[in-house]
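User: quick one, fold this
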Amino acid sequence: MASSLDPIVTLSLVVGTIAALIFAGVLVALAAFTIRYRDRGSGTPPQIHGHQALEVAWTAVPVLALAIVFASTPPAMMRREARCVRSGPIAAPVTCPCTT
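Assistant:
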């Protein structure tokens, strides 16, 4: 029998995978740019402005990742709620350890 938490676990794995991919990408880019553009004592490097494709990409990729998480959360929550339908109140015994 499947647990009612399966959709939540699946959603957390998707979000965790996206976060791990972003972390790995940033780590690799940081290492590559640190090695490639380290100071070689040649003065000030030329400044490059207006790389429109790069600016669109670094805006669109996070928006796409958030859209995936946003779109997958409500279905996961609805599947979880559908599995948690209860037929009535839950009876739970209550004991007090401080009775005399």
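User: anything notable?
Assistant: The radius of gyration is 25 Å.
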